[in-house]
């Protein structure tokens, strides 16, 4: 529910929950501990929300403009547009990787603070944090 974005909460809380999950799974922080993928710890939609929205192009107003755009799109213009799109997608993927790395670093920092906490204590802290949310315990249809 949390990873799918069904429960709105702050990013700070999501990072704390991810750190508690790592503590529960792997015990204390170690560089040799197996790390799950970020998508298994943190909702991807939060990372995507940090990125700027794609530029919006207004639709062509008249039929002639669409016809000219269609004719030009098949030639060199189309190749240039495809190249621009590919570069924009590459920049967005790079930004997404940067955001993911900074989020994972914040989660690891919170995990390091949980040194010495056992698995039952980490699970209890996780549930105690979730219990504070409005709608905790309700059933969604």
TrEMBL record:
Q: Could you tell me which residue ranges the FERM domain spans?
A: 1-141
Under Gene3D superfamilies, the record lists: 1.20.80.10
Q: Which InterPro entries has this protein been placed in?
A: Actin_motor_Myosin (IPR051724), FERM/acyl-CoA-bd_prot_sf (IPR014352), FERM_2 (IPR035963), FERM_central (IPR019748), FERM_domain (IPR000299)
Task: Indicate the segments annotated as coiled coil, or none if absent.
Answer: none
- Which superkingdom does the taxonomy of this entry point to? Eukaryota
Which PANTHER family does the UniProt record give?
AGAP003327-PA, PLECKSTRIN HOMOLOGY DOMAIN-CONTAINING FAMILY H MEMBER 3
Tell me the protein's name. Answer: MYO10 protein
- Organism equals Mionectes macconnelli
Q: Which gene encodes it?
A: Myo10_1
